[in-house]
Design a protein that fits this description.
Strand content: 15-25%
Helix content: 25-40%
Structural class: alpha/beta
Protein backbone atom coordinates (compact mmCIF):
# COMPACT_ATOMS: atom_id res chain seq x y z
CA UNK A 1 0.00 0.00 0.00
CA UNK A 2 1.31 3.45 -0.95
CA UNK A 3 1.52 5.53 2.24
CA UNK A 4 3.91 8.09 0.76
CA UNK A 5 3.14 11.78 1.32
CA UNK A 6 4.18 14.04 -1.56
CA UNK A 7 4.90 17.52 -0.23
CA UNK A 8 4.71 20.21 -2.91
CA UNK A 9 6.62 23.45 -2.40
CA UNK A 10 6.98 26.32 -4.86
CA UNK A 11 10.17 28.26 -4.11
CA UNK A 12 10.97 31.82 -5.14
CA UNK A 13 13.45 34.21 -3.48
CA UNK A 14 13.30 32.41 -0.14
CA UNK A 15 17.01 32.35 0.78
CA UNK A 16 16.33 33.81 4.24
CA UNK A 17 13.81 31.16 5.24
CA UNK A 18 14.28 28.04 3.13
CA UNK A 19 16.73 26.24 5.40
CA UNK A 20 14.33 26.47 8.37
CA UNK A 21 11.52 25.16 6.18
CA UNK A 22 13.63 22.26 4.94
CA UNK A 23 14.55 21.40 8.51
CA UNK A 24 10.91 21.28 9.61
CA UNK A 25 10.21 18.68 6.91
CA UNK A 26 13.27 16.55 7.67
CA UNK A 27 12.32 16.54 11.37
CA UNK A 28 8.85 15.13 10.77
CA UNK A 29 8.00 12.16 12.99
CA UNK A 30 6.27 10.56 9.99
CA UNK A 31 9.16 9.40 7.78
CA UNK A 32 7.45 8.26 4.55
CA UNK A 33 7.47 11.47 2.51
CA UNK A 34 9.00 13.10 -0.54
CA UNK A 35 9.51 16.84 -0.91
CA UNK A 36 9.13 18.27 -4.40
CA UNK A 37 10.70 21.73 -4.47
CA UNK A 38 9.94 23.68 -7.63
CA UNK A 39 12.57 26.43 -7.79
CA UNK A 40 10.95 29.18 -9.82
CA UNK A 41 13.86 31.23 -11.26
CA UNK A 42 14.79 32.93 -7.98
CA UNK A 43 16.99 36.02 -8.32
CA UNK A 44 18.63 35.58 -4.92
CA UNK A 45 20.73 32.72 -3.48
CA UNK A 46 17.77 30.40 -2.88
CA UNK A 47 18.93 27.67 -5.25
CA UNK A 48 22.48 27.75 -3.87
CA UNK A 49 21.16 27.41 -0.30
CA UNK A 50 19.03 24.40 -1.28
CA UNK A 51 21.86 22.71 -3.18
CA UNK A 52 24.25 23.26 -0.26
CA UNK A 53 21.70 21.78 2.14
CA UNK A 54 21.22 18.70 -0.03
CA UNK A 55 24.98 18.21 -0.40
CA UNK A 56 25.43 18.56 3.35
CA UNK A 57 22.60 16.26 4.46
CA UNK A 58 22.54 13.73 1.58
CA UNK A 59 18.75 13.79 1.99
CA UNK A 60 17.37 11.60 -0.81
CA UNK A 61 13.71 12.30 -0.05
CA UNK A 62 14.05 15.86 -1.36
CA UNK A 63 13.88 16.54 -5.09
CA UNK A 64 14.84 19.92 -6.53
CA UNK A 65 12.96 20.73 -9.72
CA UNK A 66 14.13 23.80 -11.62
CA UNK A 67 12.19 25.80 -14.16
CA UNK A 68 13.85 27.61 -17.08
CA UNK A 69 11.13 30.27 -16.99
CA UNK A 70 9.03 31.98 -14.34
CA UNK A 71 5.94 29.92 -13.57
CA UNK A 72 4.25 31.59 -10.62
CA UNK A 73 2.92 29.73 -7.58
CA UNK A 74 -0.01 27.95 -9.26
CA UNK A 75 1.95 26.55 -12.20
CA UNK A 76 4.87 25.68 -9.92
CA UNK A 77 2.57 23.64 -7.66
CA UNK A 78 1.05 21.97 -10.71
CA UNK A 79 4.56 21.07 -11.93
CA UNK A 80 5.30 19.48 -8.57
CA UNK A 81 1.98 17.65 -8.64
CA UNK A 82 2.81 16.17 -12.05
CA UNK A 83 5.90 14.49 -10.56
CA UNK A 84 4.36 13.45 -7.24
CA UNK A 85 4.52 9.72 -6.49
CA UNK A 86 2.60 9.65 -3.20
CA UNK A 87 -0.94 8.66 -2.41
CA UNK A 88 -1.24 11.73 -0.18
CA UNK A 89 -0.54 15.30 -1.27
CA UNK A 90 0.46 18.06 1.15
CA UNK A 91 1.38 21.66 0.43
CA UNK A 92 4.03 23.74 2.15
CA UNK A 93 5.05 27.28 1.29
CA UNK A 94 8.76 28.03 1.35
CA UNK A 95 8.60 30.35 4.36
CA UNK A 96 6.18 28.43 6.58
CA UNK A 97 7.10 25.97 9.34
CA UNK A 98 5.45 22.71 10.42
CA UNK A 99 5.41 21.24 13.90
CA UNK A 100 7.46 18.00 13.98
CA UNK A 101 4.32 15.85 14.32
CA UNK A 102 2.26 17.69 11.70
CA UNK A 103 2.12 14.90 9.13
CA UNK A 104 1.72 12.14 11.73
CA UNK A 105 -1.16 13.91 13.51
CA UNK A 106 -2.89 14.90 10.29
CA UNK A 107 -2.65 11.45 8.70
CA UNK A 108 -4.10 9.88 11.84
CA UNK A 109 -6.94 12.40 11.72
CA UNK A 110 -7.59 11.72 8.01
CA UNK A 111 -7.84 8.00 8.69
CA UNK A 112 -10.01 8.49 11.77
CA UNK A 113 -12.50 10.55 9.76
CA UNK A 114 -12.13 8.42 6.63
CA UNK A 115 -11.70 11.78 4.92
CA UNK A 116 -10.44 12.79 1.50
CA UNK A 117 -9.45 16.36 2.39
CA UNK A 118 -8.22 17.62 5.77
CA UNK A 119 -6.65 20.81 7.09
CA UNK A 120 -5.43 22.08 10.46
CA UNK A 121 -5.23 25.16 12.63
CA UNK A 122 -2.22 27.44 12.43
CA UNK A 123 -0.51 30.36 14.14
CA UNK A 124 0.63 33.68 12.73
CA UNK A 125 4.38 34.13 13.18
CA UNK A 126 6.90 36.94 12.76
CA UNK A 127 9.80 37.06 10.30
CA UNK A 128 11.77 34.68 12.51
CA UNK A 129 8.91 32.14 12.57
CA UNK A 130 8.26 32.90 16.24
CA UNK A 131 4.57 32.49 17.02
CA UNK A 132 2.64 35.67 17.83
CA UNK A 133 0.03 33.88 19.94
CA UNK A 134 -2.67 34.53 17.33
CA UNK A 135 -3.93 31.03 16.54
CA UNK A 136 -6.53 30.38 13.86
CA UNK A 137 -9.13 27.86 15.00
CA UNK A 138 -10.78 25.74 12.33
CA UNK A 139 -14.28 24.23 12.08
CA UNK A 140 -14.94 20.49 12.19
CA UNK A 141 -16.08 20.47 8.57
CA UNK A 142 -16.49 22.79 5.61
CA UNK A 143 -18.78 22.18 2.66
CA UNK A 144 -18.60 24.25 -0.53
CA UNK A 145 -21.21 26.81 0.56
CA UNK A 146 -19.63 27.09 3.99
CA UNK A 147 -16.16 27.53 2.49
CA UNK A 148 -17.39 30.47 0.40
CA UNK A 149 -18.08 32.24 3.71
CA UNK A 150 -15.08 30.89 5.61
CA UNK A 151 -11.67 30.88 3.93
CA UNK A 152 -9.72 29.55 6.91
CA UNK A 153 -8.23 26.67 4.89
CA UNK A 154 -4.55 27.66 4.76
CA UNK A 155 -2.37 26.09 2.07
CA UNK A 156 0.43 24.81 4.32
CA UNK A 157 -2.10 22.91 6.49
CA UNK A 158 -3.79 20.86 3.74
CA UNK A 159 -3.52 17.09 3.20
CA UNK A 160 -5.41 15.26 0.43
CA UNK A 161 -5.90 11.55 -0.28
CA UNK A 162 -5.63 10.98 -4.04
CA UNK A 163 -7.24 7.56 -3.68
CA UNK A 164 -10.45 9.51 -3.01
CA UNK A 165 -9.91 12.73 -4.95
CA UNK A 166 -8.63 12.34 -8.49
CA UNK A 167 -5.17 13.82 -8.88
CA UNK A 168 -6.33 15.73 -11.95
CA UNK A 169 -8.78 17.66 -9.74
CA UNK A 170 -5.81 19.04 -7.78
CA UNK A 171 -4.57 21.16 -10.69
CA UNK A 172 -4.56 24.71 -9.35
CA UNK A 173 -6.42 27.31 -11.42
CA UNK A 174 -4.16 29.99 -12.92
CA UNK A 175 -5.69 32.87 -11.02
CA UNK A 176 -4.77 34.99 -8.01
CA UNK A 177 -5.60 33.25 -4.72
CA UNK A 178 -5.21 30.00 -6.65
CA UNK A 179 -5.14 27.96 -3.45
CA UNK A 180 -8.57 29.16 -2.29
CA UNK A 181 -9.88 28.65 -5.83
CA UNK A 182 -8.62 25.04 -5.69
CA UNK A 183 -10.30 24.28 -2.36
CA UNK A 184 -13.59 25.65 -3.71
CA UNK A 185 -13.19 23.63 -6.92
CA UNK A 186 -12.74 20.42 -4.92
CA UNK A 187 -15.59 21.11 -2.52
CA UNK A 188 -17.88 22.08 -5.39
CA UNK A 189 -17.67 18.41 -6.46
CA UNK A 190 -19.39 17.37 -3.23
CA UNK A 191 -16.37 16.66 -1.04
CA UNK A 192 -16.24 17.91 2.55
CA UNK A 193 -13.07 19.28 4.15
CA UNK A 194 -12.43 18.11 7.72
CA UNK A 195 -10.68 20.46 10.13
CA UNK A 196 -8.22 19.29 12.77
CA UNK A 197 -8.37 22.09 15.33
CA UNK A 198 -4.75 21.87 16.42
CA UNK A 199 -2.00 24.43 15.90
CA UNK A 200 0.47 22.49 13.75
CA UNK A 201 1.73 25.20 11.37
CA UNK A 202 3.35 28.60 11.74
CA UNK A 203 2.45 31.10 9.02
CA UNK A 204 5.40 33.47 8.68
CA UNK A 205 4.33 37.02 7.83
CA UNK A 206 6.81 39.88 7.28
CA UNK A 207 5.81 42.91 9.32
CA UNK A 208 5.73 45.32 6.38
CA UNK A 209 3.04 46.33 3.88
CA UNK A 210 0.06 44.92 5.80
CA UNK A 211 -2.29 47.64 4.55
CA UNK A 212 -1.42 47.03 0.89
CA UNK A 213 -1.75 43.27 1.43
CA UNK A 214 -5.27 43.79 2.81
CA UNK A 215 -6.30 45.79 -0.24
CA UNK A 216 -4.87 43.14 -2.57
CA UNK A 217 -6.66 40.39 -0.62
CA UNK A 218 -9.97 42.21 -0.98
CA UNK A 219 -9.51 42.50 -4.72
CA UNK A 220 -8.46 38.86 -5.08
CA UNK A 221 -11.36 37.45 -3.09
CA UNK A 222 -13.88 39.62 -4.92
CA UNK A 223 -12.45 38.42 -8.24
CA UNK A 224 -12.78 34.81 -7.06
CA UNK A 225 -16.46 35.23 -6.30
CA UNK A 226 -17.23 37.04 -9.53
CA UNK A 227 -14.95 35.34 -12.06
CA UNK A 228 -13.86 31.95 -10.71
CA UNK A 229 -17.23 31.05 -9.15
CA UNK A 230 -19.42 33.10 -11.51
CA UNK A 231 -21.54 34.53 -8.70
CA UNK A 232 -23.73 37.60 -9.19
CA UNK A 233 -22.99 40.92 -7.51
CA UNK A 234 -25.49 40.49 -4.67
CA UNK A 235 -24.49 36.90 -3.95
CA UNK A 236 -20.81 37.86 -4.08
CA UNK A 237 -21.42 40.73 -1.67
CA UNK A 238 -23.25 38.36 0.70
CA UNK A 239 -20.37 35.91 0.87
CA UNK A 240 -17.81 38.71 0.89
CA UNK A 241 -19.27 40.14 4.11
CA UNK A 242 -18.76 36.81 5.86
CA UNK A 243 -15.22 36.55 4.45
CA UNK A 244 -14.32 40.07 5.65
CA UNK A 245 -15.67 39.43 9.16
CA UNK A 246 -13.72 36.20 9.56
CA UNK A 247 -10.57 37.65 7.97
CA UNK A 248 -10.52 40.39 10.61
CA UNK A 249 -11.42 37.99 13.41
CA UNK A 250 -8.54 35.65 12.53
CA UNK A 251 -6.04 38.43 13.07
CA UNK A 252 -7.36 39.71 16.40
Amino acid sequence: MNELVSIIMPVYNAERFIRDTLQCVVRQTYPDWELLMVEDTSTDATRAVIEAYLAETKETRIRLITSPEKLGAAKARNRGLSEAKGRFVAYLDADDVWSPDKLERELAFLREKDAAFVFTGYEFADENAVGTGIVVRVPETLSYRQALKNTTIFTSTVLIDTDKIEKSLLEMPIIESEDTALWWKILRQGFVAHGLDENLVRYRRPGKSLSSNKLRAIRRIWALYRRAEGLGVLQSAWYFCFWAYRAVKRRV
